[in-house]
């Protein structure tokens, strides 16, 4: 599978899994099956909560960022 091109994978119906939390949240948000299984209130609540989690994660400055960028100033 790893030796195939993106086009060859697409021709075989193989798609990439979400690579980030936000991509996964967007996939759940767009998935009618997830909405039916969870129900409208839980589906919306899940998407809202996980979007907030993603935003909170991106507002946090990691140790790697501090080590990398503070040396420039």
Describe the structure.
It is a single chain. With 73 residues, this protein is mainly α. Helices cover 68% and strands 0% of the residues. α2 packs antiparallel against α4. The radius of gyration is 18 Å and the shape is flat. The protein starts with 5 loop residues before the first helix and ends with a helix.
What is the element layout, followed by pairings?
Layout: H1 6-11, H2 21-30, H3 32-38, H4 40-59, H5 63-69
Helix pairs in contact: 2-4, 3-4
Largest sheet: none
- Share of helix among residues? 55-70%
Q: Quick check: average pLDDT?
A: 93
Poorly predicted segments:
none
Q: What is the element string, with H for helices and E for strands?
A: HHHHH
**Which structural class should the secondary elements be placed in?**
mainly alpha
Overall geometry comes to flat
- How many helices? The count is 5
List keywords for this structure.
single chain; 73 residues; mainly alpha; 5 helices; 68% helix; 0% strand
Summarize the structure.
The protein is mainly α and 73 residues long.
